[in-house]
Design brief:
The chain has five helices and no strands. It is mainly alpha-helical. The protein has two domains: 1-65; 75-121. Helix 1 (3-28) packs across helix 2 (34-48) and helix 1 packs across helix 3. The longest helix has 39 residues, at 82-120. The protein is extended, with a radius of gyration of 19 Å.
């Protein structure tokens, strides 16, 4: 199978997991977003060996490489709320920047802790 076909199948697997997680959230009225359940499901399947990384790696890398495209609809949507941006723009900016800093710091600390733990064992 060529590289494009392989990536397409891998993306289809990831989309299937996303649809399954959204279905599970709706079916069981879980108080979590489908994307969070999907990440947990994907992690569990990878850890249990049910799903091998090689089966989804190139498709996931392709999606990550094009991640910016997924934010374009959100950026276009923001333009529709100019009055909100003019009246509360500074507060929104502070929340976005503070949230980004907290997420980056948390991710960095977690990665450092995981690396330290792996080196130790």
């Amino acid at each position: 199978m060529n590289r494009i076909g392989k990536s397409a199948v891998q993306i289809a697997i990831l989309c299937g997991l996303a649809f399954l997680s959204n279905f599970l959230v709706a079916q069981f009225s879980l108080p979590l977003p489908g994307s969070v359940v999907g990440i947990a499901l994907l992690f569990g399947l990878l850890q249990l060996g049910v799903l091998r990384l090689e089966w989804i790696e190139s498709g996931a890398n392709l999606l990550l490489a094009e991640l910016l495209l997924f934010f374009i609809p959100s950026a276009v949507g923001v333009v529709q709320y100019r009055s909100l941006l003019f009246s509360h723009g500074i507060a929104i900016l502070i929340v976005v920047v503070a949230g980004s800093v907290v997420i980056m710091a948390g991710s960095g600390l977690l990665a450092t802790q995981l690396a330290w733990t792996r080196r130790k064992s």
